[in-house]
Write a structure and sequence with these properties.
nine-stranded mixed beta sheet, 6 helices, magnesium ion binding, two-stranded antiparallel sheet, Rossmann fold
């Protein structure tokens, strides 16, 4: 499994503002969108393209465009929704599928409560949007779900990750034939006893949409 920590001053700057508890939801949402576009650039490095012939105003030439079938972007509800707009700005012709996953705050186990995805993901490169890779439970469940439906590869885009979560995902898919990658803005220090990333940014869903 490939883990890419995107090391870029703009990513660090935006993440620092996100982490600050004084940052309000409006600015937080805006920054998440901007950050995702930066992470998406790295995450889509291996997106499939196919050769095409085009006519420029000057001559006939060959180029390349996104291959079909198009990639599938899969935000994990609820917090992943805040990343969708930024991702679609980079790859607007992708299909979008939704996966609703919730983690039990006591057991930290993830379960699926909703899904809206094609049944057949054969030949589809999937990009999972999940802002916080904490224990890894949600992401492992989501990746398994996509692999079962035949996904060709799965790349998770996470704003922040904990080493415990990255290790858990790595362990879960060490024998998988499906290429798995994690692209993240930072690898934080650890998880605390409540399963929160430290230093982290708190509850990403609450920071994006308010406490419900
Ligand atoms: N989910 C969050 O929103 N924040 C964390 O720190 C961990 C999981």
């Amino acid at each position: 499994m490939k883990v890419v920590v995107v090391n870029h001053p703009l990513v660090t700057h935006k993440l620092t503002v996100l982490r600050d508890k004084q940052t309000n939801s409006q600015i937080f949402r805006h920054l998440v969108e901007e950050l995702v576009t930066l992470l998406a650039y790295e995450a889509t490095r291996d997106v499939k393209i196919q050769e095409v012939s085009i006519q420029t105003p000057v001559t006939q030439t060959k180029g390349a465009m996104l291959a079909t079938p198009r990639p599938v972007v899969v935000p994990i509800l609820r917090a992943g929704l805040g990343m969708l707009e930024g991702m679609m700005r980079v790859i607007p012709s992708a299909d979008v599928g939704f996966l609703g996953m919730v983690r039990d705050e006591k057991t930290l186990q993830a379960s699926t409560y909703a899904n809206r995805l094609p049944d057949d993901l054969t030949k589809r490169q999937c990009y999972v949007l999940d802002p916080m890779l904490a224990t890894g439970g949600t992401l492992i469940a989501a990746i398994n779900y996509l692999i079962e439906r035949g996904a060709e590869s799965v790349t998770a885009i996470c704003l922040l990750s904990a080493p415990e979560g990255a290790k858990a995902v790595e362990e879960a898919f060490k024998d998988s034939k499906t290429p798995i990658a994690i692209v993240t803005g930072a690898m934080d220090e650890k998880l605390n006893e409540h399963g929160y990333i430290v230093p982290g940014l708190g509850d990403a869903g609450d920071r994006l949409y308010g406490v419900v």
